[in-house]
Amino acid sequence: MDIVDEITRAHREVAxxxxxxxxxxxxxxxxxxxVWAACTDPDRLRRWFLPVTGDFRVGxxxxxxxxxGGEILRCxxxxxxRLTWLFGDNPGFSEVEVRLTADGDATLFELRHTxxxxxxxxxxxxxxxxxxxxxxxxxxxxxxxxxxxxxxxDEATFHQTDEGRRVIxxxxxxxxxxxxxxxxxxxxxxxxxxxxxxxxxxx
Length: 203
Prior knowledge:
Protein name: Activator of HSP90 ATPase
Domain Activator of Hsp90 ATPase homologue 1/2-like C-terminal: 30-141
CATH topology: Alpha-D-Glucose-1,6-Bisphosphate, Chain A, domain 4
Strand order of the largest sheet: 1-2-8-7-6-5-4-3
CATH architecture: 2-Layer Sandwich
CATH superfamily: START domain
Structural class: alpha+beta
InterPro entries: ASHA1/2-like_C (IPR013538), START-like_dom_sf (IPR023393)
Radius of gyration: 16 Å
Number of domains: 1
Family: Belongs to the AHA1 family.
Helix content: 40-55%
Largest sheet: 8 strands, antiparallel
CATH class: Alpha Beta
């Protein structure tokens, strides 16, 4: 398979208000219970995303290894998970919501990340700063659901491969298109796509 196709299969939306929001929506060729377990079972989650520890209940907390942590706000298997997504000492408001909808033998997957984003970061990188990261994570989920064995790209070296650079470039451009559709000026979008691509795939 050409994994760049995994980027083009997703629909993206950007809400550029006081709080910024990115939405990625796509269909996985797997049952809703299987996708839910891949996203919430710690043993499965670490195979395509990151190791996670915590008190896995509504009101409990979680911590992803070397990444975000927070509180579990809602959990309605197998259709809805919402949690705070906090990173660093003073992260401000940040929430992630995942919605799953059965579509026959497939699953419609929607992830929305809403956050307070510093204006200087948004003007420099736009939605791609967060969006490309989610695209790469959801690429891991797609490959995991296809293979079942956790054979996902190595995050530390993926950007150094030709394939990895094509994926990152395609993702960054796709978020630029979503940003443009949300009303951002073309020159701001063009600069943000360049900056985001250089951040995720430095020469």
